[in-house]
Amino acid sequence: MPAYQRDGTAEIAFACQQQYISVYLLHADVRGAFARRLAGHDMGKGCLRFRRADAIDFDLLRDLLRATAATRGQIC
Length: 76
Known about the structure:
With 76 residues, this protein is α+β, with helices and mostly antiparallel strands. It has helices spanning 28-33, 35-38, 58-70, and strands at residues 3-6, 9-16, 21-25, 42-43, 47-50. It starts with a strand and ends in a 6-residue tail after the last helix.
């Protein structure tokens, strides 16, 4: 599974599942900060799912990646 890592620890990961494309958000503080924006999406405990490639919210992903890069919060 491809992942963005810092100091050898994965902080955000991606996977192509059979039914959806998933983004694993491993920082609880980032998930909390984006709770309102994530509310309208198919979201598990730490997994953001998109059923189709054309449904991916690239603005949200960009902001999640930037927020993850800007924090050193605890990995869940």
